[in-house]
Amino acid sequence: MVDQEHQFSRYHYLVLAAILLLPLVVAKLRARRKACKNLPPGPWQLPVIGSLHHLVGALPHRAMRDLARRHGALMLLRLGELPVVVASSPAAAREVMRTHDAAFATRPRTATIRELTRDGTGVAFAPHGERWRAVRKLCVTELLGARRHKERRAAAAGAGSGDEEEDLLDVLLRIQKDGGGGLQVPLDMGTLRAVITDLFGAGSETTATTLQWAMAELIRHPAALRKSQEEVRRVLAGQSRVHEDALPELRYLHMVIKETLRLHAAVPLLLPRECQEDPSCRVLGHDVPKGAMVLVNAWAIGCDAASWGPDAEEFRPERFEGDVVDFRGSDFEFVPFGAGRRMCPGITLGLAVMEMGLASLLFHFDWELPAGATDPSELDMEEALGITARRKSDLWLIPRVRVPPPPNV
Ligand code: HEM
Predict the structure, then answer these.
(1) How confident is the model at residue 2 (pLDDT cuts 50, 70, 90)?
(2) β-strand partners of 280
(3) Which residues are listed as membrane-spanning (predicted)?
(4) Could you tell me the CATH number of the domain that includes residue 190?
(5) CB-ligand 1 contact for 194 (6 Å cutoff)
């Protein structure tokens, strides 16, 4: 009986609290609606599926580019229930990744993303916060940064003299053994596994895809192929293989890689961000609501005639002569690696791998299309669906040896 009375009075209090709190909740909802009254424009939506029907029939980055041409550089879509804001111009990208970088520094945590990324315990999909900051710092200083790059080069130069190069796992295990190297989060096995998975996931397909596109574009543009091959063979004349020290001299090759990343951004919509400013963040005069997913269409920005001129969709490495525009996060018309806090930390390593790979392919071999495929301009350049824009069909080329690669390359 006493228990029943007790329960009744608890229920009573709960109802009372709900009634008292109701005006507060309503006021908050109203404030949020008011704060978001100027949502970005977007195409018409259907119940349940939102804007999904506008994305059918084309790859997402292409469909979104076409929609943005009609609805604006900052556009609101709804993928089912989820509001998705797409930035498709240098100005919009600057707002997201510089002006309001902190507001958009976290990643969405949908059930799928949590499942696929070990609940974001690595770097790429970790929510913004102390843990992400600490793990990213570890990656930059110990695994991917300039110091590590120098150590790798020193070890490579001393190959054969007994100097052993530490691989990624060796470095992480050493830091773990030394007590985490001052890291603010425990470097347990789960974290190590997530970091390694992230680095391999983020680093291998991106660089391999870019290399494939570079070769495909060079085959389609024989003058550019000749020019980069002549450069590599002139700079490396008399050598038996490509050395990393020669890379800074391969200026045209560097332009070829830049032009490839411009036309074939390996991660065309970058990695998704999420608005964490409550109740919304004001971008280019519009309100981006808290919780909205934010995508930057790096591919559309890279191909936009407003920034790149009427030949924006053509492969012309010479446009980078004089290195006027760079991809290190300050020129928002060219953001294949993103910008701001969540920018790719693997640029230096990625570039070194791509430059070594492409230089070696061009130094050691001449390249031709297989018999029967005589017109290079007919080469299939279609992309496959995915987070990375891979080639849809495999690239088949015939190599003819010019400088035989040494046996250990
Ligand atoms: C062609 C080569 C590469 C391209 C085009 C590329 C592109 C990108 C892009 C677009 C992002 C998202 C940036 C953003 O959200 O603003 C990213 C993030 C990331 N990339 Fe790369 N990447 C490349 C190579 C690499 C390599 C070689 C590594 C390391 C081995 C790497 C590690 C990462 C990591 C860990 C992140 C997540 C950063 C974070 O969320 O804090 N990437 N990359």
Answers:
(1) very low
(2) 289
(3) 12-29
(4) 1.10.630.10
(5) no
Q: For atom 15 of ligand 1, which residue has the closest CA?
A: 271
Looking at the domain assignment, is residue 9 inside a domain? no
Q: Is the CB of 349 under 6 A from ligand 1?
A: yes
For β-strands 82-87 and 74-79, DSSP reports them as antiparallel
Q: Within 125-246, where are the H helices?
A: 130-138, 146-157, 168-177, 189-220, 222-235
Q: Is residue 103 part of a domain?
A: yes
Q: Based on the structure, what is the number of domains in the chain? A: 1
Q: What pLDDT digit, counting tens, does each position of 272-330 carry?
A: 999 999 999 999 999 999 999 999 999 999 999 999 999 999 999 999 998 689 999 99
27, part of any domain: no
Kindly tell me if the per-residue pLDDT of 336 is higher than 90.
yes
Test site for ligand 1: of 344, 351, 390, most ligand atoms within 8 A of the Cβ = 344
- pTM attached to this predicted model: 0.88
| pLDDT above 80 (res 102) | yes
Query: Using the 8-state DSSP alphabet, how is residue 144 labeled?
Result: I
Note whether residue 20 is domain-resident.
no
Range of the domain at 378: 32-401
Nearest CA to ligand 1 atom 16: 338
ipTM of the complex as predicted: 0.99
Could you give the residue ranges of the DSSP H alpha helices within 264-400?
Answer: 298-302, 305-308, 347-364
What CA–CA distance (Å, rounded) separates 201 from 120? Answer: 13
CB 207 near ligand 1, within 6 Å = yes
